[in-house]
Structures are given as structure tokens and as C-alpha cells.
């Protein structure tokens, strides 16, 4: 497999153009501030650097989205079917669970049209209800259950505890809510046969089984994000194993040294595999099913886990990336996508500079009005893919409602990102299991469990109003934080006004197939 740098050449080129237009205005503001005092100049320069980084991420999102929809979406070539093997490889479906067992998900996933595979449950549960349910399921289906004496190493430790002594040629990682199609094993082996240096085949995913309004409203973001971003990453960035719905070869697992005992074990394992000469390959036509977080609290916990995992990754793996044999654009891809959540803590410095520190010093930085246009465009850039992908699939009013809810949802994550970034930067990161069970939430409970976000939002708005005479600079942070209790109540409403729940498996809507082919031409490495 070969990768091309053309996407990141385009990203950096467009970013350089936009930054070059803004540099004179920023330099002028820094010089004006330096004439007042050196620390005002330093604060203004820091503000300019934050803008440059923010614009780079915005350009990245726009280029990724347009590159997929203008180029990849129209490709139709497929990875060919491999020939029949006299001795089919031995495959193990590894089902990981920790107090979140889903019997139906596993039962459906086990219906593979492949002759040589087995299923093993790796159970880290402590709840007696789940222990009993898993034992009954295993006895009914004649499958193994592997438990360990402790839970060291989080999910990575659970996987290594079994895989280091298991007999297999390939293994498949299944999370508790995972459903893989009947031809998953057979089709994944086609990708391994087609790409001689593939060590991991990552399948595509869609969100199904939306049991309430929260899941139904936000789950469509999964359908659009996976296919677009992973397709581009596959050829022009760093594609990682994404935790589930992935097949790994025995040679790759051993060469990478197993899963590192960190929260972001999937990303770190993928880097170790890449350094050992193995690539992660995206399989867009293998469509698996996952569940969206069941409610706002579950979403917050998952977001906190991702932030802590990425911060731990920054602390432990930054130097590893620098020394790795990866291409420069793969490294840049990791930095831009992985560092964004933990760097919320640094972004808070930008907010503090303009909302607290400079106003308190009776000084303000005034950039040209035209700089507001790219800033707003880059602020909305993460939603561009959703807007394009669902434009013809949804009513326009429904799409606008979804985008507005998305702004509210991710804007409300600022507080939890900030808290998780700081706690993991100066402490130990924690692997948080995303809750799968749902229950009705009262208004009092919604207010109680989100009091941190609400106090933060009110305090931020009050500070901005007192020091700048306006809440506009913090509007997109304060409003979602204050109204997050509304998000916490959304799951109380069931889909279709209390209608029947969606089926366990779904019939995929017609979608454009994406080619997986080796790039040729300018920029191939």
C-alpha cells in the first residue's frame, strides 16, 4: 500500500495563503501592543498563534470534506475477491465486555459465512447480573469465556491476556454493541490478500438501533463521518484502528508487541504496527453497526475518555511519532486529529486573553473585520461534511435542526474537555466504559448532573459582560453550557412518538461505493 501527500500539500497551501493575508494585520497589532508594554505584545502574539492553529484545523476539515465528496465519492472500483483457499485461515471473534453485554448483538455477529472461526468472550464484568447472563449465553452457544483476576491495562490488558497465548491467524475486535455483517470475515480477508502489507483492516460503521430521541437526532453524524474521513485518511493521512469492527493479523499483533496499556490503545497499537511496517486499511464496503451513546451523560463520559486518552497519548507518544518511519503528512495527520481535544486547555488561554486579561489591563486587540469571515467559516467547518452528506437525504428543516443541535452538543463539551485535559495532563488518565443502559431523567437530575457546565457557562458569560460589555465573544461556549440540561432530557422521548423500536439489523440505504486503490501521480510516496 502506498500513500499520497497531495491532500496535505493542498491543506498547507491553502492555509499558507489565508495566513499570509492575515500576517500584516497581526504583526501590526503586535507592534502596537509592544509599544505599550512587552507583555501586551506577548499576549497579542499568542493570540495570533492561536488564530493560525485554529485556521489550520478549519482548512483541514474543509479540504477533507470537499476532497471526499468531489473525488472519492464518485469512484466505483472495488477490492477484488480472493481465490478459494484449501486451508482457510483461523479467525477468532474477540468480544470485549465490561458490565455492558449485548446478547443479541453478539448472536447476530456470530452468523458468519466462513468455515474456520470461533467466538471468545473476554469478560471484565463485575456485576453479578452480567456474569450470569454471559455464562448462560456461552453455555447455550458453546463458546469460551475468558476472565482475568484483575483489570490492569484497561481494554488493552483484557485483549492481551487472551491474545498472547491464543491460536489464531487473524482476530476481530468486537465491542459490546457491535454488529458485523455475515460476510465480514470473508470480505476482510479479501483486503488482506489485496494489500500485502496490511496488518489491520478497519471496517466502515453506521449507527443503528436508536432507542430514543437523543440517539436518533445525533446518530446520523456517525454515518457521514466514518465514510468520508476514513476514506481520505486511508490514502492521504494516518488511518488508525478505531477500537472495534477491525480485523488484525497475527504477524501484525506480534510485530507491534501487543496492545499498549493506555486508554487510547487502538491509536497507539496502530502506530506501533505502522512502525513495524504494517498499514491500517479502510474497508468502506464492509458496513458494521454500532450504537450511538444512549444519552447525554453517556456521550459526556465517552468524550471525557477520548480527551484523557489523547492527552495521555501526547505525553507518552509525541517523541515516538517524531522518531517513527512514517511520512511527514502521516505525522501531521496524527497531530491535527489527535491533539485537538486535549488542546482545549490551551484554547482556554485564548479566551482568557481576550475576555479576561486584556480587558482587565484596559487594552484590546482589533483585527480587520474581514478576518471574521474565515474565522466563522472555519468554526463551522466540522459540520460541512454532515451538511453535504445529508443534504439530499433529509428534509432541509430536519437538517438545519440537526446542525443546530450539533452546535449545542459539541459546544457544551468545552467544559468537560477542559476539565479532562487538565486532570489527565497533571494526573493519570482513566478508561471510562460508556454506559449502555438508559433511564428517564428528571429535570432536577438533569440540572444536578450538569451543574458544572451550567455554572461555567453563566460565569463565562458574566465575566465577558463585565469586562467587555458583551457576551458575543463567548456566546458559542456559554449558551451550550447553560442549556446542556436540555440535551440531558432528550433521551426521555422515544423515536416516532413512542413507536416500535428499530430492528437489531438494518437494510443499508443505497450509498456510493468508495474505491480503495493505490494512488498514482503527483505526491505519491
TrEMBL record:
Its main location: membrane. The chain crosses the membrane at residues 38-56, 332-353, 365-385, 397-416, 470-489. InterPro entries: Glyco_trans_2-like, Glycosyltr_2/OpgH_subfam, Nucleotide-diphossugar_trans. It is found in: Cell inner membrane. Residues 170-364 form the Glycosyltransferase 2-like domain. It comes from the Bacteria. The keyword Calcium does not apply. It is a multi-pass membrane protein. Pathway: Glycan metabolism; osmoregulated periplasmic glucan (OPG) biosynthesis. Keywords: Cell inner membrane, Cell membrane, Glycosyltransferase, Membrane, Transferase, Transmembrane, Transmembrane helix. Gene3D superfamilies: Spore Coat Polysaccharide Biosynthesis Protein SpsA, Chain A. Belongs to the glycosyltransferase 2 family. OpgH subfamily. This is Glucans biosynthesis glucosyltransferase H. It comes from Planosporangium thailandense.
Amino acid at each position: 500500500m502506498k500513500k499520497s501527500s497531495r491532500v496535505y500539500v493542498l491543506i498547507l497551501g491553502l492555509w499558507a495563503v489565508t495566513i499570509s493575508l492575515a500576517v500584516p494585520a497581526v504583526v501590526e497589532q503586535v507592534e502596537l501592543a509592544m509599544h505599550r508594554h512587552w507583555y501586551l505584545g506577548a499576549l497579542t502574539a499568542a493570540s495570533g498563534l492561536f488564530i493560525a492553529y485554529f485556521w489550520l484545523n478549519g482548512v483541514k476539515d474543509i479540504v477533507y470534506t470537499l476532497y471526499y465528496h468531489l473525488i472519492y465519492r464518485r469512484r466505483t472500483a472495488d477490492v477484488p475477491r480472493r481465490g478459494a483457499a484449501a486451508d482457510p485461515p483461523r479467525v477468532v471473534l474477540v468480544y470485549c465486555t465490561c458490565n455492558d453485554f449485548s446478547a443479541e448483538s453478539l448472536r447476530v455477529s456470530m452468523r458468519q459465512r466462513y468455515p474456520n472461526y470461533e467466538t471468545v468472550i473476554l469478560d471484565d464484568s463485575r456485576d453479578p447480573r452480567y456474569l450470569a447472563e454471559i455464562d448462560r449465553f456461552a453455555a447455550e452457544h458453546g463458546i469460551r469465556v475468558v476472565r482475568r483476576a484483575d483489570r490492569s491495562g484497561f481494554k488493552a490488558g483484557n485483549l492481551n491476556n487472551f491474545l498472547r497465548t491464543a491460536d489464531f491467524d487473524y482476530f476481530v475486535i468486537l465491542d459490546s454493541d457491535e454488529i458485523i455483517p455475515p460476510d465480514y470475515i470473508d470480505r476482510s480477508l479479501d483486503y488482506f490478500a489485496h494489500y500485502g502489507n496490511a496488518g489491520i483492516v478497519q471496517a466502515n460503521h453506521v449507527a443503528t438501533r436508536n432507542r430514543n430521541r437523543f440517539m436518533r437526532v445525533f446518530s446520523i453524524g456517525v454515518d457521514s463521518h466514518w465514510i468520508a474521513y476514513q476514506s481520505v485518511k486511508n490514502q492521504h493521512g494516518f488511518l488508525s484502528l478505531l477500537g472495534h469492527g477491525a480485523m488484525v493479523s497475527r504477524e501484525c499483533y506480534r510485530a507491534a508487541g501487543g496492545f499498549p496499556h493506555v486508554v487510547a490503545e487502538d491509536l497507539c497499537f496502530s502506530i506501533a504496527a505502522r512502525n513495524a511496517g504494517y498499514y491500517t486499511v479502510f474497508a468502506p464496503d464492509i458496513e458494521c453497526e454500532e450504537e450511538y451513546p444512549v444519552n447525554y451523560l453517556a456521550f459526556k463520559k465517552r468524550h471525557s475518555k477520548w480527551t484523557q486518552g489523547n492527552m495521555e497519548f501526547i505525553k507518552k507518544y509525541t517523541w515516538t511519532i517524531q522518531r517513527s518511519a512514517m511520512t511527514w503528512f502521516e505525522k501531521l495527520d496524527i497531530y491535527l486529529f489527535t491533539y485537538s481535544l486535549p488542546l482545549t486547555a490551551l484554547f482556554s488561554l485564548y479566551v482568557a486573553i481576550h475576555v479576561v486579561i486584556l480587558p482587565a489591563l484596559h487594552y484590546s486587540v482589533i483585527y480587520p473585520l474581514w478576518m471574521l469571515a474565515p474565522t466563522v467559516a472555519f468554526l463551522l467547518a466540522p459540520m460541512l461534511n454532515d451538511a453535504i452528506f445529508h443534504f439530499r437525504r433529509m428534509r432541509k428543516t430536519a437538517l438545519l435542526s440537526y446542525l443546530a443541535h450539533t452546535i449545542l452538543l459539541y459546544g457544551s463539551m468545552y467544559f468537560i474537555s477542559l476539565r479532562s485535559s487538565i486532570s489527565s495532563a497533571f494526573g493519570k488518565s482513566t478508561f471510562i466504559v460508556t454506559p449502555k443502559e438508559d433511564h428517564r431523567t428528571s429535570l432536577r437530575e438533569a440540572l444536578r448532573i450538569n451543574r458544572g457546565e451550567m455554572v461555567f457557562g453563566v460565569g463565562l458569560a458574566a465575566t465577558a459582560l463585565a469586562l467587555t460589555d458583551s457576551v458575543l465573544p463567548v456566546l458559542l461556549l456559554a449558551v451550550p453550557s447553560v442549556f446542556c440540561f436540555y440535551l440531558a432530557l432528550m433521551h426521555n422521548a422515544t423515536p416516532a412518538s413512542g413507536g416500535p423500536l428499530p430492528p437489531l439489523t438494518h437494510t443499508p440505504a443505497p450509498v456510493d461505493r468508495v474505491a480503495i486503490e493505490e494512488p498514482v501521480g503527483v505526491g505519491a510516496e
